[in-house]
Design brief:
mainly alpha; about 85% helix; about 0% strand; elongated; about 70 residues
């Protein structure tokens, strides 16, 4: 049996069932709070990712400049 068919995105009926289960578990009032927390977490992750990328790029620029300084000194 091909395992690729077992790993797929949920269809319309399955998505509806998942949404209904989430609604029953968390209730209508908790879902906006849950989504707000999820959005905050994603923003923090993207901010940290950008900070790390900037640090790496700065380190690469500094390492490229060091050999030039040694040659001119």
């Amino acid at each position: 049996m091909n395992t690729l068919f077992l790993i797929s995105m949920p269809g319309g009926g399955e998505m509806l069932l998942l949404l209904l289960a989430i609604l029953l578990l968390f209730g209508g009032k908790k879902i906006p709070e849950l989504m707000r927390g999820l959005g905050k977490g994603i923003r923090e992750f993207n901010s940290a990712k950008a900070s790390i990328k900037e640090d790496i790029e700065t380190g690469m620029k500094e390492s490229e400049e060091e050999p030039r300084k040694k040659i001119t000194d």
